[in-house]
What does this fold into?
Amino acid sequence: MIIVGRNGIRKLGLLKVLSGIYRPDKCRMVNGARKTSLLTLQAGFDVNLKGRDNVRLNGMLLGYKKVYILSKLAEIAEFSELEAFFHAPIKTSSTGMRVRLGLATASF
It folds into this structure.
């Protein structure tokens, strides 16, 4: 799941409800999806490896099978909007780019 929106529309509030920090006022939330901490999205990244290699490594740390990860590489590169940087070491990428790559990996 990715939450995108302009400033002030309560994205953080929604995330707090989804994570269980806040209780919803007038709805019921059912979450059957796998949970991934935002803090661990880059936990397996090696700055000397290329983006695609970090996706493979991080995906396996998240529990995905290698065959599945390899079949999703192009989609992950496109989803993260980092196709131009996907074959470069991530030490050349900004922190925001690394977060997008980690989020894209966890989303598939």
